[in-house]
Amino acid sequence: MTEGPAIRNVSDTARWVAVYRAMESERPDALFHDPYARRLAGERGEQIVRSLKRGKAAAWSMIVRTCVFDEIILRLVHQEGARTVLNLAAGLDARPYRLSLPAALRWVEVDLPELLDYKEQVIGAARPACAVERIRLDLADRDARRQLFARLAATGEPTLVISEGLLVYLPEAEVAALAGDLAAAAGFRWWLIDLVSPTIMRYLKKGWGKALDSAQASFHFAPEESAGFFAPFGWRPLEFRAFWPESRRLKRQMSLAWLWDLVGRLTPKQQQDGLKTGAALLGRDDGPA
To answer: Is residue 21 a contact partner of residue 38, using CB atoms and an 8 Å limit?
Structure first.
């Protein structure tokens, strides 16, 4: 009996990434603990990881991304005054349930109805650390998302927007439109994103492109300018943390990392480009420095 295609649609990528969070959570020296990841991933997530070329070996980058995002989110909430977190394409993220967050924080998740329905079914009656609101919305509907952004911004609360694992799936024009729509909401003070460099994008497409293309979940966005891409749309880079050196700090380097370091020394331009893959914290042009 055939299992069918590994990835059926872009929502399945949330199950894929949940497997990596489960893998890390089950380590004796885990950097984070996501008690829901294994159940959220389900057998579909396991199937995806099994079927993809070097599926398990790719876990390091998603684990590092999760850790870096956790660190930045906690700092902005506890030290820099973020009162609302808006998680776009929230997928199967369980941060409100596993991070130490203040009860007064408002956490808003936006994603497709079927994905959020599934998430609620799995998480059940578990209590989050803060107030959680789930909004079922297709972010491709620009009018609807603009209305949502305007409503949330009207509260005046300093808001951190997260779009983890989202932009890479969008064409450049759609990323630009989203950036402009977010900048138009005055209360949205920070935007936390992850970026893929052109060099890393070529590797990703070579390994996973066919499976993603068949599911209409193709990779697109890998700007040459890295975080500088967002400057014309009202956002300036505040912080950039490349995943490769972060993996060394966190002791989660990929297998044969030493070989890739050697290749990088032999091809410094490629190495420099590869270091543009990481987490970027953006701030509004009219916000505090």
So the answer is: no
Q: How many CB atoms lie within 10 A of CB 197?
A: 21
CA distance 248 to 250: 5
Tell me, what DSSP letter sits at residue 7?
-
CB under 8 Å to 189, separation ≥6 — which residues? 82, 158, 159, 160, 283, 284, 287
The structure tokens listed for 103 are 């009860």
209-223 pLDDT, tens digit each: 888 888 888 999 999
H/E run at residue 265: helix 257-266
User: Residue 286, class by beta-carbon neighbours within 10 Å (0-12 exposed, 13-18 middle, 19+ buried)?
Assistant: exposed
Other CB atoms within 10 Å distance of the CB of residue 204 = 18
The structural domains of the chain, with segments of one domain joined by +, span 57-284
In the CATH hierarchy, which top-level class contains the domain 57-284?
A: alpha beta
Q: What is the pTM of this model?
A: 0.93
Partners of 160 in beta bridges: 85, 190
